[in-house]
Design brief:
This protein is of the alpha/beta class and 238 residues long. It has helices at residues 10-21, 41-44, 58-67, 83-93, 105-121, 145-155, 210-223, 232-236; strands at residues 2-6, 25-30, 48-51, 72-74, 97-99, 128-135, 163-165, 174-181, 188-194, 199-205, 229-230.
Length: 238
């Protein structure tokens, strides 16, 4: 399958290696040095584009790829205020877009576990809840998209919490997220339920970017055979 890469940082390079190892061809690479590459015949020949860039450029990249007739798989976070626009383009104009805040298979199992635990803990108000995420110092957005997905899974199922917040002066009904940036940490996420007598925690600790990159390539393979607005739940059938 012909794949285009939008963004050629550490994730883009890891995706390239895995895609080639799985028998795919990288026909176009678009980065800050060649922003006009969307208009090239090579980019337009791609079956799918995989996009990992920045919150400031992501939405514009999607529109350019759509204009070139290329479906998009994206793992960029921090742009979700425009998510409804993308869903509308998929529904009304037949565009195809796959989004995940995290492409790791393990993290998506973690998402499902998080929701199930929240449903149980809704019945035990003695437990307060907090969420901590740690990433490398180069990550531009905070909290991480993965942390937001975890928080939303909790808020859907815990009646005593109204919203997530980074504010250290949170209210009792707030779900606090603590965002830490240090070193070259690929990603650590932990959800803690704390009471006076004990605490329960679930945690995912990524060892490298390889799991994210593999998930993105598998998502591209899935997107090439499907249409519309897609996500990990569609692919993994959780």
């Amino acid at each position: 399958m012909k794949i285009a890469l939008i963004g050629y940082g550490k994730m883009g390079k890891a995706i390239e290696q895995i895609a080639i190892a799985r028998g795919h061809e990288i026909v176009s690479i678009i980065d800050i040095n060649n922003p006009d590459g969307f208009n090239s015949a090579a980019f337009k020949s791609a079956k799918v584009a995989i996009e990992f860039t920045t919150p400031a450029t992501a939405f514009s990249n999607y529109l350019k790829a759509f204009e070139a007739g290329v479906p998009v798989v994206s793992g960029t976070t921090g742009w979700l205020d425009k998510l409804s626009n993308i869903k509308e383009l998929c529904a009304k104009e037949g565009k195809t877009f796959f989004y995940a805040s995290n492409f790791s298979i393990g993290v998506n199992v973690f998402f499902a576990l998080n929701k199930h635990l929240a449903k149980i803990m809704n019945n035990f108000p003695a437990y307060d809840i907090k969420l901590t995420e740690t990433h490398h110092i180069h990550k531009l957005d905070a909290p991480s998209g993965t942390a937001i997905t975890l928080a939303e899974g909790i808020l859907e199922n815990i009646e005593r919490k109204d919203r997530w917040t980074l504010d250290k002066e949170e209210q009792k009904t707030d779900l606090p997220i603590y965002a830490i940036r240090e070193g070259e940490v690929p990603g650590i996420h932990e959800v803690v339920y704390d009471s006076e007598v004990d605490y329960i925690s679930i945690k995912h600790d990524a060892k490298s970017r390889q799991g994210f990159a593999l998930g993105a390539v598998v998502a591209a393979e899935f997107t090439a055979e499907n249409k519309g607005f897609l996500g990990m739940e569609d692919m993994l059938k959780f």
